[in-house]
């Protein structure tokens, strides 16, 4: 296939619609299983005794999914979770902290109490590994040994920032996925479930199908994924400044039809994976994952997710939010996504999955920016009324934002003008000396020192306002494609089909519940209060509380020793200098 | 076996003190934009003379009252309705009204609330009081936004005896043995159609009528 200098080639390879079935290495290719032939899907049966290798369980979605799996499918065989040590903590300590204190695991702690440590030791192996390294840093023999009885690799890990350093995005979203797939390729079945995003749809404005056309970008540009990755990485070499790297990657992504680095790297990763013959890839694309409806508990959220900054902005004195009122705001609660993921992995484990699943709301129960902004006003004022801050209680509680779309964003919000005013005021006040401009008598009469202090304080406020306006302007620039330019409808027929395959009993736990979401209740009573509790404090530089630590049974080493995870070391085995001198099994 | 009986309550005056106009004004004052609030309040204010002059008894006054919420979203109106109930109605149901509802339930009467307010406002109240039926106005919605019109039939300040007879016939209710509670002169049409009328905290007009017809009067 001929290509141009940018890795763009003449035509693409279509891969869409129906799942390949069965074993890897081409044996499955071309086998077509229709929806009717697939029959019932028993979720618990599908997981029973299975060994899964999972990445990204420390993330928002990964944690909820793991909790749901261990809570509802007690017969699952084993999970090997790939965790990277961070901030001086090794992988085990990081994972144990999650077990001990993460609110996402509340259902498990409530169900098992301290016995959860035993359950975790029996069911979960923590693998300290780095996804950015080939075979996740394992040597080939160790990797082969690890993967010999793994039934599927489930890859949640990824970097979700819109415009990160492209090197990090490539590492996390492309190489990380490839290396996880490489491990999957070593397993007998080659099953690989890849968590992507619906926003790989890129710069399109229509119904987005649950399929992928390998080598064809969102706007129809044909390219070679391998050559595109090589060109991207080569282009980044020598760019020392992050901003230059971001500009370079943005330009390449936009040329192919992806609006930012996140969607570009995620999209490219999908193309690279679909082109592989050594794994059976099932791609799962959630839309904007937000606060839990019910599981692990009402309102749970973690980190600064997509709608957090929007809700923060709506809770300030900005009343004019630049969004197309009728555009879909494709929110999906994290437990809905987790339920769907339970089904998709089960379908993959039974070799009856579709190649691509989208988990979104815009198709079957659309929610719009107009409704979100309208109801956010009501939800936020309920929060502001209870605030101890008099500005929030007396002023913000009486203001509501609304969508504006009749004029250009710059004119509507006047960010540049407001920043200019703030800067000019700050600059003037910094130079201004009241004592030089007033007679000493008048200066004393008006308590000049106090006025000077007030002016200095106001000058600082102008600087803060200038900085905040800059942040908001930048945030809106990054969000603009999704709140203004593009109006997607992500088709979700495949999840609806899977829903039909579930038994009534399992549908209650794992069914696709998007059509039943009452957005009014969800937005006002769950989403906005949930963000207020779990996300907005992070935007203000504050911390969110962890749960009360789960007591460890006796001591953690004893527990891990019981399961054979680490050798037993008794006091008498330790020499005077602390060096271990003998080990008993 | 005799037909069941009902207790008809005119909500405004017998159960709550706040008028329909107050609810409409509150909704209008909680519209999305500041300018919008002023405009909507002005619109609702047009209905104030009808109310003050006692002309709101007709459906036209009621229609005018709700014109002020035209264009407001169903989401916002529903949520504001919940807030209005929590803030102004939930804890302010008149003691005398509560007692009368309690007695009616004890006597196994079907409890029917009648209001010229909208369902979004009085729906939660009916639920709170355990009413069997709520007869009130519905805002017409188009594309999830209020058109400013009320769905037919519009319940005005006065509700005709004809309506009560139709209701009784439809539900097999013995109107002669049923009770009706009203608070203002406009309620006299309803009261006179029911076998056992009762004036609750009556205004001057209804007090005079009650005296003329020898209807019982209950004060708070």
Q: Could you describe the 3D structure shown?
A:
The complex is a heterodimer of chains A (585) and B (220). Chain A has helices at residues 35-38, 43-47, 60-72, 91-101, 106-112, 115-123, 140-147, 166-186, 225-236, 242-256, 261-274, 307-314, 334-349, 369-385, 390-394, 409-413, 415-431, 434-437, 440-445, 448-485, 493-501, 504-510, 519-534, 536-539, 556-562, and strands at 13-16, 51-55, 78-83, 124-128, 152-155, 191-195, 207-208, 211-214, 280-286, 288-290, 320-321, 331-333, 356-359, 402-403, 489-490. Chain A has 585 residues and is α/β, with parallel strands linked by helices. In chain A, strand 5 (152-155), helix 8 and strand 6 form a beta-alpha-beta unit. Mean pLDDT of chain A is 86; it is low at 1-32 and 558-585. The model of chain B has no long low-confidence stretch (mean pLDDT 89). Chain B is α/β, with parallel strands linked by helices. In chain B, helix 2 runs antiparallel to helix 3 (34-45) and helix 6 (74-89) crosses helix 8 (119-129). Helix content of chain B is 47%, strand content 18%. Chain B has eleven helices and eight strands. Chain B has a six-stranded parallel β-sheet with strand order 3-2-1-6-7-8, sandwiched between helices. At the A-B interface, helix 14 of A face helix 6 of B.
């Amino acid at each position: 296939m001929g290509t141009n200098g940018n890795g763009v080639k003449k035509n693409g390879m279509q891969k869409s619609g129906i799942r390949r079935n069965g074993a890897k290495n081409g044996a499955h290719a071309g086998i077509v299983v229709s929806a009717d032939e697939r029959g019932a899907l028993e979720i618990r049966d599908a997981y029973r005794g299975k060994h899964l290798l999972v990445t990204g369980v420390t993330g928002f979605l990964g944690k909820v999914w793991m909790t749901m799996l261990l809570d509802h499918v007690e017969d699952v065989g084993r999970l090997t979770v790939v965790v990277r040590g961070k901030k001086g903590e090794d992988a085990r300590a990081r994972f144990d902290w999650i077990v001990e204190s993460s609110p996402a695991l509340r259902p498990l702690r409530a169900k098992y109490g301290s016995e959860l440590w035993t359950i975790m030791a029996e069911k979960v192996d923590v693998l300290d590994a780095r996804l950015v390294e080939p075979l996740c840093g394992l040597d080939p023999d160790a990797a082969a040994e690890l993967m010999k009885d793994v039934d599927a690799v489930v890859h949640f890990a990824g970097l979700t920032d819109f415009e990160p350093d492209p090197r990090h995005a490539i590492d996390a979203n492309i190489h990380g996925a490839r290396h996880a797939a490489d491990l999957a390729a070593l397993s007998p079945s080659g099953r690989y479930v890849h968590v992507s995003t619906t926003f790989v749809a890129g710069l399109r404005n229509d119904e987005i199908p649950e399929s992928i056309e390998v080598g064809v970008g969102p706007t129809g540009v044909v390219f070679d994924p391998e050559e595109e990755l090589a060109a991207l990485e080569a282009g980044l070499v020598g760019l020392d400044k992050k901003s230059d790297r971001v500009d370079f990657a943005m330009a390449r992504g936009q040329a192919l039809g992806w609006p930012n680095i996140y969607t570009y790297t995620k999209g490219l990763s999908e193309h690279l994976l679909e082109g592989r013959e050594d794994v059976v890839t099932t791609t799962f694309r959630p839309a904007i994952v937000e606060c839990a409806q019910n599981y692990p508990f009402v309102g749970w959220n973690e980190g600064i997710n997509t709608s957090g900054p929007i809700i923060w902005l709506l809770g300030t004195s900005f009343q004019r939010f630049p969004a197309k009122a009728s555009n879909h705001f494709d929110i999906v609660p994290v437990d809905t996504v987790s339920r769907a993921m339970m089904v998709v992995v089960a379908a993959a484990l039974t070799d009856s999955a579709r190649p691509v699943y989208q988990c979104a709301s815009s198709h079957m129960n659309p929610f719009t920016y107009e409704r979100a902004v309208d109801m956010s006003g009501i939800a936020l004022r309920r929060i502001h009324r209870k605030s101890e801050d008099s500005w929030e209680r007396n002023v913000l509680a009486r203001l509501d934002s609304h969508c504006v779309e009749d004029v250009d964003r710059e004119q509507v919000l006047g960010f540049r003008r407001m920043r200019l005013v703030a800067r000019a005021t700050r600059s003037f006040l910094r130079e201004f000396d009241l004592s030089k401009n007033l007679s000493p008598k008048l200066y004393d009469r008006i308590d000049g020192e106090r006025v000077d202090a007030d002016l200095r304080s106001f000058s600082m406020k102008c600087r803060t306002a200038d900085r905040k306006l800059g942040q908001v302007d930048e945030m809106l620039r990054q969000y603009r494609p999704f709140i203004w330019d593009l109006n997607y409808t992500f088709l979700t027929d495949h999840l609806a089909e899977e829903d039909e395959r579930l038994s009534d009993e399992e549908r209650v736990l794992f069914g696709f519940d998007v059509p039943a979401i009452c957005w009014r209740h969800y937005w006002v009573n769950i989403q906005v209060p949930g963000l207020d509790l779990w996300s907005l404090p992070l935007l203000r530089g504050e911390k969110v509380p962890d749960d009360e630590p789960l007591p460890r049974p006796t001591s953690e080493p004893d527990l891990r020793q019981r399961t054979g995870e680490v050798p037993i070391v008794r006091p008498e085995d330790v020499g005077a200098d602390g060096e271990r001198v003998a080990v008993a099994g | 076996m005799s037909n069941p009986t009902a207790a008809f309550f005119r909500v405004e005056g017998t159960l709550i003190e706040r008028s329909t106009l107050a609810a409409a004004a509150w909704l209008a004052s909680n519209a999305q934009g500041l300018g919008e609030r002023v405009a909507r309040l002005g619109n609702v204010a047009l209905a104030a003379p009808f109310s003050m002059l006692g002309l709101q008894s007709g459906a036209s006054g009621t229609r005018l009252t709700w014109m002020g919420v035209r264009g407001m979203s169903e989401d916002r109106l529903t949520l504001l309705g919940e807030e209005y109930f929590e803030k102004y109605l939930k804890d302010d149901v008149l003691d005398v009204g509560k007692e009368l509802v309690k007695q009616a339930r004890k006597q196994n009467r079907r409890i029917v609330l009648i209001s010229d307010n909208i369902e979004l406002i009085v729906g939660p109240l009916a639920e709170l009081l355990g009413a069997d039926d709520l007869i009130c106005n519905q805002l017409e919605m188009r594309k999830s936004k209020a058109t400013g019109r009320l769905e037919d039939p519009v319940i005005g300040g006065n509700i005709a005896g004809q309506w009560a007879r139709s209701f009784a016939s439809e539900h097999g209710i013995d109107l002669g043995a049923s009770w009706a509670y009203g608070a203002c002169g406009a309620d006299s049409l309803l009261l006179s159609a029911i076998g056992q009328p009762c004036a609750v905290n009556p205004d001057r007009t209804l007090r005079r009528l009650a005296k003329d017809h020898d209807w019982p009067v209950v004060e708070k």
